[in-house]
């Protein structure tokens, strides 16, 4: 099912053309990354897809369905506690309080922020506020989730954590996001649209990449890693080794490591 289609669409603001001659079709279930340099028009394209902007030339058709939108910057100095804020936003969309509380706690657990539900948002970190913004959009059970630079300003470990959490909520709806980080593009997108000067200059479907797990481990001796099949490894310290393994083999490898007396320091899944 087509959820967005544009035919030679453009957008003009204050007499200035910010999007030009866009022809694009996006179907339900796609995971689309919109990338480009700062000022290229990628956020404007995202807003056009979501109906925040209306085209001033050409044709645009949007499918029926609910759209959740997460802006790049979460509002500052919100005095509400996180759960209070999410309840307020959710009620504005017609949800009952009992239903909302169940959803809030479900997503807070997925995004690992349950301990912050009663914390004022203005005291939360950027990463925690970013997660609250995504939960806010998910509360309406969207058919399309639009994310504007969701990893901006987050450290690498928080980026990986947020990416894994976004992947875990994949329930068949469409996700469209702007990004310049290869981590998010490689880990989530199956299609990449590149924008420059308000025009689409590339639109590529990505081949599905295998999922890998990166394991950092402290080993009792340097023969342990060499005895385990299906892995690549290198030592970063005398007894600390980084291992790369296909996700399908990771449980077996972790078992072998633990049985050999190793200590797992870090475990990350990537594509």
TrEMBL record:
Gene Ontology molecular function, alphabetical: ATP binding; ATP hydrolysis activity
InterPro entries: AAA+_ATPase (IPR003593), ABC_transporter-like_ATP-bd (IPR003439), ABC_transporter_ATP-binding (IPR050763), P-loop_NTPase (IPR027417)
Pfam family membership, one: ABC_tran
Cited PROSITE patterns: ABC_TRANSPORTER_2
Keywords carried by this UniProt record: ATP-binding, Nucleotide-binding, Transport
Transmembrane regions listed in the UniProt entry: none
Residues covered by the ABC transporter domain: 4-222
Gene3D superfamilies to which the protein is assigned, alphabetical: P-loop containing nucleotide triphosphate hydrolases
SUPFAM superfamilies: P-loop containing nucleoside triphosphate hydrolases
Protein family (similarity comment): Belongs to the ABC transporter superfamily.
Name assigned to this protein: ATP-binding cassette domain-containing protein
């Amino acid at each position: 099912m087509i959820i967005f289609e544009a035919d030679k669409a453009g957008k003009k603001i204050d007499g200035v053309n910010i999007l030009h001659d866009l022809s694009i079709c996006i179907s339900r279930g796609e995971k689309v990354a919109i990338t480009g340099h700062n000022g290229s028009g990628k956020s404007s394209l995202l807003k056009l897809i979501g109906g925040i902007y209306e085209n001033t030339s050409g044709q645009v058709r949007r499918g029926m369905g609910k759209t959740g939108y997460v802006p790049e910057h979460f509002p500052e100095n919100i005095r509400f506690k996180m759960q209070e804020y999410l309840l307020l936003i959710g009620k504005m969309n017609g949800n009952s309080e009992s239903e909302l509380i169940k959803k809030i706690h479900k997503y807070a657990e997925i995004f690992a922020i349950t301990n912050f539900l009663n914390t004022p948002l203005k005291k939360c970190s950027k990463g925690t506020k970013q997660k609250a913004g995504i939960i806010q959009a998910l509360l309406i059970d969207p058919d399309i989730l639009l994310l504007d630079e969701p990893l901006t300003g987050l450290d690498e470990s928080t980026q990986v954590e947020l990416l894994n959490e976004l992947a875990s909520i994949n329930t068949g709806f469409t996700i469209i996001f702007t990004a310049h980080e290869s981590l998010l593009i490689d880990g989530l997108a199956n299609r990449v649209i590149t924008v420059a000067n308000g025009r689409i200059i590339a639109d590529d479907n990505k081949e599905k990449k295998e999922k890998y797990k990166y394991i950092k481990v402290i080993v009792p001796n340097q023969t342990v890693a060499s005895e385990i099949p299906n892995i690549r490894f290198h030592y970063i310290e005398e007894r600390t080794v980084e291992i790369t393994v296909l996700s399908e083999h990771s449980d077996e490898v972790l078992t072998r490591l633990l049985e050999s007396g190793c200590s797992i320091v870090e475990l990350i899944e990537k594509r």
